[in-house]
From TrEMBL, chain A:
Residues 42-100 form the Rad60/SUMO-like domain. Transmembrane segments: none annotated. Gene3D superfamilies: Phosphatidylinositol 3-kinase Catalytic Subunit, Chain A, domain 1 (3.10.20.90). This is Rad60/SUMO-like domain-containing protein.
Automatic annotation (TrEMBL), chain B:
This is Ubiquitin-like protease family profile domain-containing protein. Transmembrane segments: none annotated. Pfam families: Peptidase_C48. Residues 29-192 form the Ubiquitin-like protease family profile domain.
Length: 112, 239
């Protein structure tokens, strides 16, 4: 790669494409817990630094799909990405890998 | 006795950090001290509490066990996978998928949230090719979830036949309150995989809650002993 003036520019290898996918389903609706939730499957790719905490990327994703971050569990290859400091490098992610987003779950009965 | 367990709880408050993550659990679990405290209340169990209990059981069942327990969020991974592809084709094959395909697992247990608010339990018998469903309220029937599980198994086992649906051949206590279904699922799993007794009953509901609090609290004392095992035998990862 080179600039208009002919100088060579090295590609930025510190960044990779990271996908985040989410397919919300429903939470039960009852008189005491009116928790309806529905969302079509979506996948968004970000160009992101491998050494930067993924927490910011996940917040960006949640803002993009307009869902509260607290309602989604994110994992990559079975590793829960809840720790603020976890990076793509920590998870040995490669270009094009996708993080799975899943709806938070809670259960006890049909009525509280 | 209940009073002895209550004393043990009070003693544990001396060493439990109030705002941290429970150590020694698999990377798939992010159980906090706040979640831990919820075991002592009538709050409903969330996915981290179920997965924390499952992790605790799996660690003690050991790598030689031919039973596995799926992460309760796996059903949503299946939904994601189903929405993208006609056949189950994850990015990378997880250890549980590899173990099922290799025939090194006989039983797969699956804590499953149904209707968005009730924990139930599936038992998948890979030898008999059957699925049994246990609902502590005896009120639900699985349709979409069962179809997803059948779809997943058929791809993994390269089979075109559905598993037969059978009645549970394990004790399945009946829930009388409005919050114990998660504890009941964990109690059934501990009674079968670790031969713990007695099984949950309405009379010992409070005792079981305290027991689970103390079991998971103990990870603060001995958590690191099991971490290395779990990185090797992490057989119930999602996707």
């Amino acid at each position: 790669m080179s600039t208009p003036s002919g100088e060579d520019v090295k590609p930025d290898t510190s960044k990779i494409r990271i996908g985040v996918q989410f397919n919300g389903q429903y939470m039960h609706s009852s008189v005491s817990t009116p928790l309806l939730f529905s969302y079509d499957w979506t996948e968004v790719f970000f160009l992101y630094k491998k050494t930067k905490p993924l927490a910011k990327l996940l917040i960006m994703f949640c803002e993009r799909i307009k869902v509260d971050r607290k309602n989604i569990r994110f994992n990559y290859e079975g590793v829960n990405i809840s720790r603020e400091e976890t990076t793509a490098e920590d998870l040995e992610m490669e270009d094009g890998d996708v993080i799975d987003g899943q709806l938070w779950q809670e259960g006890g009965s049909f009525e509280r | 006795s209940l009073s002895g367990l209550a004393d043990a709880c009070i003693d544990s408050f001396e060493f439990l950090p109030w705002d941290t993550t429970v150590p020694g659990l698999s990377p798939a679990v992010h159980l906090t001290s706040e979640d831990l405290a919820s075991f002592l209340s009538s709050d409903w169990l969330n996915d981290e509490m179920i997965n924390g209990g499952v992790d605790w059981i799996l660690q003690r069942a050991g790598p030689g066990s031919r039973s596995r327990i799926l992460n309760c969020l796996f059903i949503q991974s299946l939904r994601n996978a189903r929405s993208q592809s006609v056949s189950y084709s994850p990015q990378k094959f997880s250890p549980i998928n590899k173990a099922i395909r290799a025939g090194t697992v006989n039983l797969v247990w699956f804590p499953l949230l149904v209707s968005g608010n009730h924990w139930t339990l599936l038992k998948i018998d890979l030898v008999q090719k059957t699925i049994a469903y246990s609902d502590s309220l005896r009120l639900t029937r699985l349709l979409e979830e069962l179809a997803l599980v059948q779809w997943w198994l058929k791809t993994l086992l390269r089979s075109s036949d559905d598993f037969d649906i059978v009645e549970p051949d394990f004790p399945s206590p009946r829930q009388l309150d409005s919050h114990s279904c998660g504890i009941i699922a964990l109690s059934i799993l501990a009674s079968i995989l670790l031969e713990f007794s007695p099984l949950w009953s309405p009379e010992c509901a409070a005792t079981e809650q305290i027991e689970w609090f103390l079991r998971l609290s103990s990870m603060f004392e001995d958590g690191d002993d099991f971490v290395s095992f779990f990185f090797i035998a992490s057989a119930y990862y999602m996707n």
